[in-house]
Design brief:
The structure holds three protein chains of three kinds. By secondary structure, chain B is mainly α. Helices cover about 80% and strands about 0% of the residues of chain B. Classes of the chains: A mainly alpha, B mainly alpha, C alpha+beta.
Amino acid sequence: MSEEVTTNPGARKIIAAQSTDHSTKRWIRKIRKRLGFQVCLVLLGILVIAALFALLIAPYDPNAIDLKQKNEDPSSAHIWGTDYLGRDLFSRTLFGAQTSLLIAFVTVACAFAAGTAVGCVAAYYGGVVDEVLSRCVDLFLAFPGIIFSLALLGLIGAGILNMILALTVSQWATFARFMRGNALSIKNLEYIQSARTAGLPDRRIMMRHLMPNAIMPVLILATLDIGSVILATAGLSFLGLGIPPGIPEWGSMIGAGKEFLRTAPLNVIVPGLAITVVVLLFNFLGEGLRDILDVHDEQVIPG
Amino acid sequence: MHYYLAKRLAFMVLTIFAASILAFLLLHAVPGGSAETIARHTLVGLEEEVSDLMITEVSDKYNLADPLWKQYSDWLFSAVFRGDLGTSYVYFDTPVLKLISLALLPTLILAGASMLIIIVVGIPLGIYSAIHENRPADFIIRCATIIAISFPSFWVALMLILIFSLTMDWLPVTGYGTLANLILPAVALAIHPTAVIVRIVRTSMLETLGQPYITFAIAKGLLFRHIIWHHAIKNALIPVITILGLDFGHLLAGTVIIETIFAWPGIGKLMVDGVFSHDIPVVTSCIVVIVIIFLFVNLCVDMLYHVVDPRIRYE
Amino acid sequence: MVKIKINTIAILIALVVFAGIVAISGCISKEKAIVQEGIQEPTVKAEQVLTQSSRMLKFGELWLITGYDPANNGVFITEKAIVTESLVGATQDFKLVPTLATSWSQTSPKTWIFTLRDNVKFHNGQPMTAKEVKFSLDRAAKLNAQNRGFMDYNSSRVIDNLKIEITTNQPNPILPEALHYPNMAIIHPDSLNAQGNFMKPIGTGAMMFDSFDEQTRTFTVKKNPNYWGGPVKLEGMIITGIPDSNARALAIEKGEVDFTVDVPMNEADRINALPGITVDKFLTPRKYRMVVNFQRPALQDKRVRQAISLAINRDDIVNHVLYNVGAPAKGIYVPQMAWSNKDLDVLPYDPAKAKALLAEAGYKDMNGDGIVEKDGKPLTIVIVSAQERPGLPPMSEAIGQYLRNIGIDSKVEIMASAASSDRQKSGNFDLIMSPSNIAMIPDPSYIMDQWYKTNGSQNSGKYSNVTLDALIEDAKQTTDLKERYAKFNRIEAFVYDELITIVIADYGVTIARKDTVTGYKFDPTAHDLRMDSDMTVTG
């Protein structure tokens, strides 16, 4: 992309258009070659559909309590058994997928939006703007893992919105730092410089040239981050801080089932396996994308 | 170089300062609620009635009615000039500094033991996986690691407890003081970062092995083993060092949940207990301490990185 | 150049790792040493003194030990460590008995005179006199508003060595009952240091303070050879706080403790079946109850409250949620209390009748969605519950289901206790699940005042009945015990039937002990449990 950039705006447009076309076709060809990736995509598709249509698919109301049926083993009536209050584990797990995916998608979307915006702006303008924004980012990055979310949730209380807020606040900085790094490496490429000298408006350059080219690795980070957010949600709910008991959520199911670890371990095993499988699928997706898009960056590790 | 170090240290202090403000604000923003929660956790019992008189008393005792900036500056000055981080609301009349110093060692032991596992298990596995690229061993290791990365750490902890403590009765579950107590928590904490390290070492190793100078060495006729040991590993491990530094931070964050499960008396558990009982001085100080440790380790790792690879230059 | 540097780094790393291993094992064995030291010493002494082989009891208690000043931590130091004692004790049926005070009388509406027991010595050898009692009570009132409130403490005056006069702000007919509370324990002024800070508990109890290890938070007490109550059988105790119920269960199974409380309810029977361990279930003076919000029009209708109560299957809840740790509630008080109305029985379970009552009150399901409506509005009930008390969240969820079964749109909201009490205070609830202690002070008036009187401190449902207020006040001032209890029986019957609060079950506690621990007697008047100095530990 960086060879032979002419000063002819028309030629630039053609080259840009061609490279986009070329990319899409290339990706589809690559996907066709990778069976594992296809399987992953299919499974994820099934997962998302199942979560969306949980209401229709679930055989039981996830909150339907039947004390006399508590801690039943899997049977034809309850394919994964029942929990300590007699609720169907399969239905609860399905609705738990709804909760987890909802929180994860919204959180990552918000963190992604906020982070890439900040990172892009910081990289593009440089100077004082960059310094100030980078210090901000560093500040949030100084809190490892869920420390910040933990304290914040302890303060504002449990709930889905609160969880999304707390996790977005702890995740956005990773995106910002990464985006900034990528944008910096592209910023100095000739065609960006030419666009600047040509007098194109800053925002246009950022939106149409800098961001789209810097964004691929960040998208992969986003995919991998979904897994991280699901794990963080589960961890905080397990402690009792995230999603209030009552709303089916895998982490709080494990937390509530903990005292039945010996007598009825399914309470803990089923939601744990669910988390593992879903995070696994998203990790595969991220890895596969990284492979397809030819991004060689070991630094793509979600926080 | 020294200028760089000074600059980094200055930034570190600034960040710690800002982090402490953030942590403090976070926890003090709801004054009334705090006095009541504190009274409930310490004086009357969780479900009992807290009279308004009692709320006023608790509030006065800890100056909870003061404006936030005043509470913060009081805390900051006594922390910096007197080394007094305040007194815990829950542990009667116990200075926070004492609680943290008691809790610091267990957390460092746990994080250290996990780090040991990561280094001793993760790095060799990653190297082995790279050397045997695309052979069955590599395939198995890659599969295992991608699954291990997906496990929730607290769930792994519970499964380990189920298998090794409850079913097979080999190891104790909670408690602190013997090596047996350390094994389960350290393993549970280490699984995720170990898997990550294996993958990174493998990638880094493969990249190094693909470098021209390795091909040249092979062409020269050097023994493959010699090449691996004397050239590939050293250069492959350089980026791994940074990751290990980052990992330490993740270990610190991970101790929060693991320590709670295993009743390990470290900073993570202290912080979680403090969050639930609104023990504000304890939580604020825990956050600050964790941030300090994290930043310090990152700084050390960056310095180490520079020493190890003199090609890196810092402005 | 690079080569040399890498080798150096490798060696450095190896050294650090090695040092780490050494440090870790060193620290750990040091910790082990500290713990072991604490245990070894007293065992040796015990074997020298006693003919029968008996040793220290390892006690795994419920809460982390955060302090041991009786003014604030009476529950721990008075009831569990039994190092300090209050002036007044109680029997199994909650009647008062003399402990450090032998008799008391109300000499005027606002004054009481307590006669103290003679020949009681503190652990430092000093005799207990009215001076020390005044010191302790002054301090308890000053440091803790709840203590002050219970006693309605104004001041006290030393009359002579063994007589003390206590003055209250308002006439308080239950001052002796208030003095039963563990925070009102008597300590010697030498418990404080020169600056007036609490250092160690010098009390009068069967156990003497030995040490407190801050790292492991282990509290050690040894027997008091000069206990006024006679020779003490229990050698001593090593107390650690184990806040997690699973951890407590494991501790007793593995023999890490000899005695513990509250194993997970679903494990009680299994652990009891293990050889060498006995798990007993006892009832405590704590009630699982629902506070009803009388500001809500729907709940003002007694038929709706009755329907709610009839919808709940208390037997199933006790069976399947509490695993029979506890019992379905019979009345507002617990059966062993001397003043409880023995004629009251468990409220019935009859969902058909519940639905009929709802229909009678005008709630019918018009649109077939399973929810009843009145005047077009569905009957929605929000149940708020705290999450910390074991058994409470699943109970709340089960009750939510029972209400749904009769057509009520019930929503269960479980939250941290701080948030739940906020909801309670602001009236933002329909029903609140509350595991309330009904004998902070062992007297029937305690909860009647708080729960049912207009503006009672725990009357968050804002129920107001002037006639009832007068009855409660009258009963409270009645000094003749028989008449007093009779009056409270009638009051209890009334509020129970009116369903002002809807009681579900009595809270139970499990006591798990090794079979080598004998002689334990459970005291229901304590907050969680009271340790018994008549215990012996063999083997």
